[in-house]
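assembly run, all chains below
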Amino acid sequence: MATTMSDFRVDPVSGLKIHRTANTLVKWNAFAAVVFLLVGGLFGLGVALTRMPSVQLLSPELFYMALTAHGLVNLAVWIIFFEMAALYFLGAHILGSRLATPRFAWAQFWLMLIGAAMVAVAVLQGNSSVMMTSYPPLQAAPHFYLGLILFAVGALIGCFVFLGTLVVAKREKTYTGSLPLVVFGGVVATVIAVFTIVSGALILIPTFLWSIGLISHIDPMMYRVIWWGFGHSSQQINVATHITIWYLIASLVFGAKPMSEKVSRGAFLLYILFLQLGSAHHLLSDPGLTSSWKILNTSYMIYLAVLASMIHGLTVPGSIEVAQRRKGLDTGLFTWLRKAPWGNPVFSGMFLSLVGFGFIGGISGVVMSVEQINMIIHNTAYLPGHFHGTLVAGTTMAFMAVTYYLIPVVFQRKIVLTGVAKLQPYIFSLGAWVFSIALMGAGTLGVQRRHADITFAGQPLAYEYPEIAKGLMDIGEIFGVVMAVGAIMFIAVVLASIFTGERIAEDSAPWPKVEDADVVAERTGKKHIGVWGMEAPGTFVLAMILFVTLVLYYFVNFKYLSTVWGLS
Amino acid sequence: MSESNPNGVNPHFMQKALDNQWLMLALAVLVPLVLYTLWGLWDIINVPPAP
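ok done. output:
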C-alpha cells in the first residue's frame, strides 16, 4: 500500500513520526476505554456500597447484576480497549510505521464495541447476572455469550494487525536491528493475548450453543479449566502491557535506558513461557485435577514468571535511579527518588503503579498460589483484594499515567485541570491500596466473596463473623469510594482535556525533550555513580524490602494455616 | 526505547529468536496449551466414574 508524507505528521511533543490513520485508531480505542471505565466504575461503586455491611445499598438481584457488569466492563472491556490503543501506539507510533490493514483495525474496533454493547444489554436486561466467570450450570442469555465472542474476535484481529504492523515496519525499514524493548513488550502482551482469546473461543462457542439449546450439557469442571485459560491469562496481558508502560515512562520522563536489555528481554521471555500457567491457582480447590498438575503449574512454573516480575520490578526503578544519578542526583541512597518529579502524574502514577503492584498485588498473588495457603483464602474476599492490587493499583494506574502523556501526543491537546491531574494518582492509589489490603484482611478472616450480605441474614446457614471482619469490609469499601473518586478525577481530566484543552498545532515549535541520561553523563564527564560499588544501591535496598516482606508474609500465612487447621 | 544490535553486528542467536515474533507466538500458545489446558483436561477425563 502506497503511503505519502501527508499520511504522517511529526509530533512536536514527542518528536515521533505519526501515521494519521493509526493515530485515529489509537484515539477511538482509548476514548472507548475511558468511557467504559466510567460505566464500569459506577457499577463498581454500587458493588462497594452494597458489600459495606453498614450500608448494603443494592438488593441481591441488583447486586449480582452490578457485579457482573463491573467485572466484565472493568476487567475486560476498559482494559482491552486501552490495550488495543497501546498496541497501535507501540507498533505504529514508536516504530514510525504505517499501520498494517487499517480496515481490519476498524473491524477490531467495531466488533469489540458491538460485542461489549451486546453483553451490556444482556446484563442490564437482568437475565444474565452470571458474573464474569459465568460458570455452568448458571446460564446467561445467548447474546451475552455472542457478545463476548464478538469482543474476543475483535481483540484477536487487533493482535494480528499489530503483528502485521511489525512486519510492515521491518520491510519498510522504519527501524534497524532488534525491536525496541517497549515494542517487544507489546509483542509479549500480544502473543499472550492470542492464547487467551483462543481459550475463550474454545469454551464460549460451545457455551453459546448450549444457551440456544444445540448442546445439552457443558461439563462444569472442563469449563473451569478452559475458561481460566481465558479469564486469568487476560489479566496476564495486562501485566505485560503495564510493565511495558513502566519501561516507556522511565524512558520518556528520565531519558533512562534499561539496566540490561538482555536481562529485561529474558524476563519477558519467562512471561511468554510461564506467566499463563498461573491460571491454575483458580482451580486449587477443584477435585478433578491432580496435585501434580496443580503444584507443577502454581508452585514451580509460576515462580519463573514471578522471577521475571521481580526482575522488571528491579530494572525499571534501577534504570530511573541510574538516569537520575547520571544527571547529578548522585548523593545518598534515595536523593534520586526524593527529587523525582512527584508533581508529574505520568511519573507519580507509574511509580505508584509499580509499588502497588509489587507490594500488594504481587506478594499476595505469589502467596495465594501456594496450594496449602490457598485453602484458607479460596473464594473469600481476599481474591477481590488481590486482583484490585494487580489490576487497579497496578494496571489501571499505569494506564492512567501513560494517558497523561498520550493526550498531548495523540489527541494534540494540552492537559487541563492540571491541579486535579497532579493529585489524581495519589487519591486513586490510596483508595486502591487500602481497599485491597482491607479486603485481603477480611478474606483471611473467612469473609466470602460474591455475596450481597456477608452476614447471610435470614438464611438457614447464617454465620456471625468477628466484628473486625465487618470493620475491615467497611474500611475497604469506604476506600473503594475513594478509589472511585480518583477514577472520576481521571475521567474528568481526560474528557475536559480532549474537548476543551488548547489545541497543539502540527507545525508548532518542538517541545523541550528530556535529555538522554547517557548523553548528560558524557557531557559532564561523570564516569562512576552510586555507592557501595553499586550503580543503583537505592533500588537494591527497595528490592530487599520487597523480598523480606514477601518472605515474612509467606511464613505468617503458613503460621496462620497451622492455627486454623490443627493436627492431632 | 534504545535499540540493540546496531548495524554491522551479527546478533546472538538468542536475540534472533526473540526478534522472531512468530516463534514467540508459537511458544506462548504451545507451552500453556500442553502444561495447563491439555494436561488439565486429561486429568478430568480420567476421573473415575462414581460407583
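Chain B has a mean pLDDT of 85.

The interface with chain A takes residues 1-7, 11, 15, 18-19, 21, 24-25, 27-29, 31-33, 35-37, 39-41, 43-44, 47 of chain B (CB under 8 Å).

not gonna interpret more than that til we talk
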